[in-house]
Every structure is written in structure tokens, then in C-alpha cells.
From TrEMBL:
This is ABC transporter ATP-binding protein. PROSITE patterns: ABC_TRANSPORTER_1, ABC_TRANSPORTER_2. It comes from Dongia sedimenti. Keywords: ATP-binding, Nucleotide-binding, Transport. Belongs to the ABC transporter superfamily.
Length: 365
């Protein structure tokens, strides 16, 4: 396996930058997810690494070789696509053997590699079947096997699970994670599904508009989103982002909502605001860090319930606050009705504060 380095990578179409100054390192054996909304540039980035598209500028290094000008076949990569494109007339065995035959490997070596891949992916019993005799998940496993037999330096995967139904996706997600664990493979994986990225990847590269927004472990990205885009994209339901105004009252920092209420900040959060250049502050809070009260209590701010969605284990409530929609989760026995007056208490230790102008997280120091 190999490490992959993207250094100031650009892909432009005229004045439009599909990939804009992206730099990141995928360490040897790491599983990295490129994640972001449709059109953010993740597939383009993957295709640049694969050599399916020419780069505009920058460098791509695989192992210790700069591969900018190498053909895909010379990059020692294997791709797995959403559309697995198996040969319908060939058995699973022949589908797996084909790329090796093309490389003119000896027959006994092909046989050994195919059987080893089938063993790793638990499909030895499927080797004589044709693709149409397989389930979607089994077909996807064959596609993975076809990449595996090539023993590449890097696996590049573009939404490989998106053709599967929801249940199978969850199952294949675990299998892919196991595959990575067993092989210690270097994997770059494109997905628009933040949950896939969070659950499988060692690191996630969150992209938006061709720009790399944050590159870190899912836990770090979740706990310390670099900006409002990342904060709202990672996590479900989305983090609530509430625009407020910071001011100083009797020496203490308070945040004031559009309705006129004020929320005094803890000393830690106050220090953050003192460091910020702006008075326009956006409070970010995940649903599980907001307490819903049915009566006024100190430190809770008044809001109005909008929708109430019981899911069994928890009930999700949406409420209006300072012109924003706030997502809150409450135990199923809490009875809330749409339009009811409620009070929200934010956990000061787990709240996020963003600069309302730059949209960047306000740092502690
Ligand atoms: N040949 C092209 N000419 C001009 N613009 C292009 C071309 N190919 C891609 N783009 C644009 O580049 C941007 C990034 O596309 P890309 O396919 O990488 O997005 P993506 O994040 O993978 O999205 P999706 O999840 O929808 O596949 C998009 O805005 C797309 O319209």
C-alpha cells in the first residue's frame, strides 16, 4: 500500500475551479472519505488521482512517485464505482480473473489471487455464478474483488454503495470497514452521505465549492467543525445555527436574540467572544445538547415549537428561535405540540460559536 499526497491541486474549466487549491495527505493504510454536497468537486478530485482527468496544476504523489503525467494503468490504483459494470456473460471467477489475464499473469497465479480475493470477501461459493444470479450486495462484493485481485497501492472508490437499498448499504458499510481493517488498505472513498464518511473513514475531507473545508478524523470534525458549512453538513439532524448579537452587560458578555431575550455566556465562551472581531455571532448547537423546558427557567430562552416528530426512541422537535430553526431531541414521553411556547437551555460546554461575518469557528485563544 502507499501514501497519497495532493499538493495544491487545481482543476479548472475556464474560470470555474471544480477543485481549488486542495492539499491533503492520505497516509499509508488510511481510509479517507471525500465528502460534500453534489457538485463540491469530490468525484473530480478522485478522477484526478486516478488519472481519468488531466490536472490544471499542482502535484499528485502516490508512494514516492509524482504521477501527474502517468496513465491510469501506470498509477497502481484500482477503482470501484457506483456502477460496478460486471461482465454479464462471465462467471464471478472469470470477472475476477479478467483484469489479471489482461496483465498476462501466469494462470496459476491468477487462480491463487482469485481464490484469495474470494476468500477475503466471503464469496468462494459464488465463483461459478453469473452476475444476474447475484444480489446487489454480492455484485458489489465482486466489484470490490476485481479491485482487490489487482493488489493496488491505492483503492479509489466512487459512491460504491449508492445503488444498494438502505439495509444493504448499512451491511456493506460494515463489510467495507472490515475489508479495510483486514487489508490495511489505502482507500480514498467518495460519498455525499456524511454518515457513511463518519462511520467508515479514519479521516474525512469535507469539501464545498471545490474547496477543502476541513480534513481531520470524524470525531474531530464532529466536535470541532472549522466553519458553519462543516457544522451544518456533518451530523443528523443538522446542527442548529442561530444568528445572535454579542454585547457587554455589566462587564459580562451576553448574546441577544432577535426576539430581545439575552443569554449570558460562561467565562470560557465570553473569552472566545472577546477574541472575535465581530459582534455578529452564530450560536451552533447539536440537538442532543439543548434541553427543552415547558416552563421558564433561568438560563433558558423562549422559543416556539414548530414541528414534532416522534421516532420511537426519541422525539425530534423543531422550534423557531431568532429567525432560525432549531433541532432538539427529547425523550418520547415529553409531550410537546406545534406552536407551543417552550424554553431552550443550551449546554455552554458543548456549544459552538461562529463569526457571523466570516462563518469561521471562533477560536478559544
Ligand atoms: N467537463 C466539465 N466542464 C465544466 N464543469 C464541470 C465539468 N465536469 C465537472 N464540472 C463541474 O465541476 C463541479 C464538480 O463536479 P464533481 O462531479 O466533482 O462533483 P461531485 O462533488 O462529485 O458531485 P456529485 O456528488 O453530484 O457527483 C460541478 O459543479 C460540475 O458541474
Amino acid at each position: 500500500m502507499a501514501r497519497v499526497v495532493l499538493d495544491d491541486l487545481m482543476k479548472s474549466y475556464g474560470n470555474f475551479h471544480a477543485v481549488n487549491h486542495v492539499s491533503l495527505t492520505v497516509e499509508d493504510g488510511e481510509f479517507v472519505a471525500l465528502v460534500g454536497p453534489s457538485g463540491c468537486g469530490k468525484t473530480t478530485t478522485l478522477n484526478l488521482v486516478a488519472g481519468l482527468l488531466p490536472i490544471t496544476s499542482g502535484d499528485i504523489t502516490i508512494g514516492d512517485q509524482v504521477v501527474n503525467d502517468l496513465d491510469p494503468k501506470d498509477r497502481d490504483i484500482a477503482m470501484v464505482f457506483q456502477n460496478y459494470a460486471l461482465y454479464p456473460q462471465k462467471s464471478v471467477y472469470k470477472n475476477l480473473a479478467f483484469p489479471l489475464q489482461m496483465r498476462k499473469l501466469p494462470r496459476d497465479e491468477i487462480d491463487r489471487k482469485v481464490k484469495e480475493a474470494a476468500r477475503v470477501l466471503d464469496m468462494t461459493h459464488l465463483l461459478e455464478r453469473k452476475p444476474r444470479e447475484l444480489s446487489g450486495g454480492q455484485q458489489q462484493r465482486v466489484a470490490l474483488g476485481r479491485a482487490l485481485v489487482r493488489d493496488p497501492a491505492v483503492f479509489l472508490m466512487d459512491e460504491p454503495l449508492s445503488n444498494l437499498d438502505a439495509k444493504l448499504r448499512v451491511q456493506m458499510r460494515s463489510e467495507l470497514k472490515r475489508f479495510h481493517h483486514d487489508l490495511q488498505a489505502t482507500i480514498i472513498y467518495v460519498t455525499h452521505d456524511q454518515l457513511e464518511a463518519v462511520t467508515m473513514a479514519d479521516k474525512m475531507a469535507v469539501m464545498n465549492g471545490g474547496n477543502l473545508q476541513q480534513y481531520d478524523s470524524p470525531a474531530q470534525v464532529f466536535a470541532h467543525p472549522a466553519n458553519m458549512f462543516v457544522a451544518s453538513f456533518i451530523g443528523s439532524p443538522a446542527m442548529s445555527l442561530i444568528p445572535l448579537e454579542a454585547s457587554t452587560v455589566d462587564g459580562n458578555i451576553v448574546l441577544t436574540g432577535a426576539e430581545g431575550w439575552s443569554l449570558p455566556l460562561s467565562s470560557f465562551n465570553s473569552r472566545k467572544i472577546q477574541n472575535a472581531k465581530t459582534r455578529k455571532v452564530v450560536l451552533g448547537a447539536r440537538h442532543s445538547t439543548i434541553k427543552l423546558h415547558k416552563t421558564a427557567v433561568s438560563d433558558a430562552v423562549p422559543a416556539k415549537a414548530y414541528t414534532v416528530e416522534p421516532t420511537g426512541d426519541v422525539t425530534f422537535v423543531q422550534a423557531f428561535l431568532s429567525g432560525a430553526i432549531v433541532n432538539i431531541s427529547v425523550p418520547p414521553n415529553v409531550d410537546v405540540a406545534p406552536d407551543e411556547q417552550i424554553w431552550l437551555e443550551f449546554d455552554q460546554e458543548r456549544m459552538h460559536l461562529f463569526d457571523g461575518e466570516t462563518e469561521m469557528a471562533i477560536k478559544a485563544d
